[in-house]
Amino acid sequence: DQQVKQNSPSLSVQEGRISILNCDYTNSMFDYFLWYKKYPAEGPTFLISISSIKDKNEDGRFTVFLNKSAKHLSLHIVPSQPGDSAVYFCAASGNQFYFGTGTSLTVIP
Amino acid sequence: KAGVTQTPRYLIKTRGQQVTLSCSPISGHRSVSWYQQTPGQGLQFLFEYFSETQRNKGNFPGRFSGRQFSNSRSEMNVSTLELGDSALYLCASSSNGQRRFSGANVLTFGAGSRLTVL
User: Fold this and answer.
1) Are B109 and A44 a contacting pair at CB < 8 A?
2) Per-residue pLDDT of chain A (109 residues; tens, 9 = 90+)
3) Do B45 and A94 touch (CB under 8 A)?
């Protein structure tokens, strides 16, 4: 049973525009939500997180929004850069981390 | 600070064989988790070890096992390999000392071991 879902397998965005990646979850007991970025032949790297008691966290070009009532979080990247092209995984933490299936972002120069 | 090191990076096995993968965590990290990544399935949690004890376990068959040594290095073993076991196996370490992870104890991943079963 997939407790964290990313329904968009891929996304293409023009350089300089906003990228919005979405994630839905089912378990209201998750404490933290995280985004990881993965390049080919590398392991995922931590990008940004948000506590379940917050609704927004910002770090430079990256902002994560959490809507607990909708059990939905999103990652905004502004402005998008070609180096942002990667697979993005959202994750939720409790006793373990639950990961989504990933969204492949392509930023077109 | 050295990162998480996984060996081997690539390996090919045949059905019925067994395989052992190794993971050296970041120095000082006592929590080691293992994940299986396959296309369309994302990262599936296998198990987590902390101080040589399995602390959490995912929904994988008993053919998948692991252990952790006193220096926090960890190994996972897959016996009687099946074609469906072909995947990228990722190890991640964390400084998390609690059973529940917090946002301050994020996972740091290795580059993975790519297993192909023929």
Assistant:
1) yes
2) 689 999 999 999 999 999 999 999 999 988 899 999 999 888 999 999 999 999 999 999 999 999 999 999 999 999 999 999 999 999 998 878 899 999 999 999 9
3) no
Size of interface A-B (CB pairs under 8 A): 68
B5, closest residue in chain A (CA to CA): A43
Residues 6+ apart with CB under 8 A from A21: A6, A8, A11, A35, A74, A75, A77, A88, A90, A103, A105
Neighbour tally for A9: CB within 10 Å: 12
Where does B25-101 show beta strands of DSSP type E? 31-38, 42-50, 53-57, 64-68, 74-78, 87-94
Say if CB A25 and CB A73 are below 8 A apart: yes
Helix (H) or strand (E) holding A23: strand A19-25
What span, in angstroms and rounded, lies between the C-alpha atoms of A95 and A30? 9
Q: Which residues pair with B68 in a beta bridge?
A: B74
How far CA A85 is from CA of A40, A44, A103, in Å, comes to: 10, 13, 10
Phi, psi for residue A83 in degrees, rounded to 5: -70, -10
The two most distant CA atoms of chain B are separated, in Å, by 41
